[in-house]
Amino acid sequence: MSNRLRLAIQKGGRLSESTTDLLAACGIKISRPDRKLRALSEHFELEVLFLRDDDIPGYVADGVADAGIVGENVILEKGKQVATLDQLGFAKCRLAIALPRSFEYSSARDLNDLHIATSYPGLLQRFFDENAVSATIHEISGSVEIAPGIGLADGICDIVSSGSTLISNGLKEVETVLESQAVLIASTQLSDEKRQIIDRLRFRIQSVMKARQHRYILMNVPNSSLEEVTGILPGMKAPTIMPLSEEGWSSVHSVIPEHAFWDVIESLKAAGAEGMLVVPIEKMVL
Ligand code: PRT
Ligand code: ZN
User: Fold this and answer.
1) DSSP state at residue 239
2) Domains along the sequence of the chain with CATH
3) Residue 143 alpha carbon, nearest atom of ligand 1
4) Closest residue CA from atom 4 of ligand 1
5) What is the pTM of this model?
């Protein structure tokens, strides 16, 4: 067993599905009969522990688990000694301060003397210190968003993703305390053997993440437009250009970043590209 890397992941919650999807995309299948709290993966030296997300930093810091997947917000709030290795691109959210909609807010100074309810007292206090705010923190463990409505606090500091929870509770976001997403963390005391396993896991994760961030694009281009089209393509290397059977036309293949996708497509179209096909990439190994 000791030659397996012990990876702690969330047992059930917002991180669970994306975490198991990521591992599956890395070729790591976890069979978890009877929803046990431990499982071994097939085809990779991993033992997976299923925990509450709040417990993951402590388990990794204590060496009970070698590594973990958890939100940055939880790591930073807990302040445990762990190494944060990679951002994983899912469970994106922010820790934000919100006040009743009618509050006239202009700067952090307006927070002075307020009572703010939160499950993140450590991060909120740090924000107050950095911004020279003197306010009272009420630590509560759940349903933070209802605190102002029931008169428990003037405002809240909580995780926001779409913002709809704030809106439906008559609150507005006034400050961002932290931007967060899921991260891979590890113990700072890994043996050489375990370090090798985690390096292999990271290599796979990076190949999957790069693939998710890119698209493969194929198009037909009149030869007279080739120079303009290749100038637009921000591919990894020069694009592949092959002659079509139709005289004067070429097929151009390239890889483009997902974030630039629509801008690039519009420019390519304007430059004369036709019959564009856009294909997801499964793995990308550079
Ligand atoms: O049971 P366990 O302790 O393991 O889970 P949990 O209930 O503590 O956490 P869980 O599963 O809710 O969230 C796990 C992690 O997902 C968090 O630590 C964040 O890193 C991340 N995450 C991403 C979120 C959200 N988005 C999110 N929207 N965590 C919580 N929320 C909640 C937020 O607290 C608020 O109640 O959703 C509400 C706001 O959502 P919007 O979309 O209305 O803004
Ligand atoms: Zn939790």
Assistant:
1) P
2) 5-90+181-211 (3.40.190.10), 93-180 (3.40.190.10), 214-280 (3.30.70.120)
3) 36
4) 52
5) 0.92
